[in-house]
């Protein structure tokens, strides 16, 4: 018996399965076109990004051309299934330019690494649209402006490293909601304001480095809640007040730098017992 006669001998089944097949086929086309459109949008976004780079002395970006698919462009990684950009890694390439706000359209991005270049202008607030972003490395550039408070929308952020730039303004209080954040590094900038007490809610925080800024106020009591904290570096700022007593109960801590501030008070006599992992303790010029 041929296929046709089998189908015609079971009309109800055949019309069901034909419908299903047609539906599946349409659905497949639909999915392919959605995924295709989105990944093509990533290609256009990358070209927008490239257009904002004004100097590329090492020719790093020359592979960003239509002779190969964008997922093979240097510094670009894509997810295998969706062919969407997941990693953009352009570190240490002597690139000069500004960060295109369009980067906020790379909705599958989990890592953005632009460290050791000469990117200037501001951190685009559109980065706040990257809900999958885990690692943001913009350190060692010449970025100006403030830290956008809507980066607090990057709920999966683990590493925030914007040290060695020309950033001004305050540390946004809203960043205290980034519950997965482990590294917060903003040292060597010109930030002012205070250390937001909300950072005491960053229960995953292991590294907090704000040395060489102009941050004032006192060390928030809430930092005593950070039971995973290893590095606390706030030297060379304008901090005053005393070190909160609870701070000396963070047994995980290995490095404390509070040097060159206006901190006062005295140290608990049992500090060698309460902080058994301490390796470096800088407290000069207070
Ligand atoms: C385009 O990219 C390919 C692959 O990296 C490279 O070999 C080629 O030189 C590039 N073309 C131009 C015009 O830069
Ligand atoms: C990409 O982002 C820019 C700036 O945020 C926006 O103006 C533009 O409409 C977006 N493009 C697409 C194709 O989504
Ligand atoms: C910053 O990046 C430049 C290259 O752009 C490099 O020469 C320099 O050593 C880097 N500095 C640090 C502290 O990473
Ligand atoms: C940035 O530059 C510094 C100093 O040259 C170097 O130690 C560091 O490894 C560089 N970072 C990367 C990721 O290349
Ligand atoms: C952050 O601000 C920019 C510009 O104001 C906006 O385009 C973007 O959608 C905002 N992101 C979030 C997550 O609110
Ligand atoms: C920490 O989070 C709790 C609950 O979300 C909130 O009520 C509290 O104000 C936060 N603490 C600080 C210091 O912001
Ligand atoms: C700090 O830890 C010690 C020993 O575990 C404990 O006796 C003390 O009450 C703690 N201090 C605070 C303020 O919780």
Automatic annotation (TrEMBL):
Its main location: other. It comes from the Eukaryota. Keywords: ATP-binding, Glycoprotein, Leucine-rich repeat, Membrane, Nucleotide-binding, Receptor, Repeat, Signal, Transmembrane, Transmembrane helix. It comes from Quercus lobata. It is a single-pass type I membrane protein. It is found in: Cell envelope; Membrane. Pfam families: LRR_1, LRR_8, LRRNT_2. Belongs to the polygalacturonase-inhibiting protein family. This is Leucine-rich repeat-containing N-terminal plant-type domain-containing protein. Gene3D superfamilies: Ribonuclease Inhibitor (3.80.10.10). One of its GO terms (cellular component) is membrane. Residues 1-36 form the signal peptide. Residues 40-78 form the Leucine-rich repeat-containing N-terminal plant-type domain. GO terms for molecular function: ATP binding.
